[in-house]
Amino acid sequence: MExxxxxxxxxxxxxxxxxxxxxxxxxxxxxxVSCRNCKxxxxxxxxxxxxxxxxxxxxxxxxxRSARAVGKxxxxxxxxxxxxxxxxxxQEKAQQSQQKSEN
Length: 103
Prior knowledge:
Elements (H helix, E strand, L loop, with lengths): L19 E6 L5 E5 L5 E2 L8 H12 L4 H8 L3 H25 L1
Antiparallel strand pairs: 1-2, 2-3
Helix pairs in contact: 1-2, 1-3, 2-3
């Protein structure tokens, strides 16, 4: 088995951050992890970003920085930044079309 980077979040049972090993995949394809200390097997939770973090990344992207550079500066992938940019663009377009239909 291969060591697993926990990003500071450890085993949900014993709280240990060290000794976490990859332990296969779920049927959905998510990584499973096994704790060497308590033998607990679990699926780590996805990283959650606040709306403020998302908006900061999108603003930085619009200030002529590349998605990869923004992602690196904010500790996320560039693909994530692009997905947020597209999401906020679609929301803006929907609001504009709704305002036009009301007038």
